[in-house]
Amino acid sequence: MVDDTDDLRMDLAAIRGVKIAFDVSLAGISRWAIGGPARAVVSAVTAEGVEQTLRTMRDRRDPFLVVGETSNLLFDSEGFDGVILRVGRGFDHCEIQETTVRAEAGISIPQLARLTADAGLSGLEHTVGIPGTLGGLVTMNGGSQRRGIGSHVGRVVYIDSDGRRGELSQEECRFAYRRSVLQEMNVVVVEVDLNLDRADAAVVHRSMDAVVESRRSRFPEHLPNCGSTFLSDPEMYATVGPPGRAIEDVGLKGFRRGGAQISEQHANFIVNTGGATSDDVLWLIAKIRRDVMQATGFAMDCEVRYVNKQGEVSAAHEAAQQRWPGGTSGGDSLPAHA
Ligand SMILES: Cc1cc2nc3c(=O)[nH]c(=O)nc-3n(C[C@H](O)[C@H](O)[C@H](O)COP(=O)(O)OP(=O)(O)OC[C@H]3O[C@@H](n4cnc5c(N)ncnc54)[C@H](O)[C@@H]3O)c2cc1C
Question: What pTM did the predictor assign?
Answer without folding.
Answer: 0.93
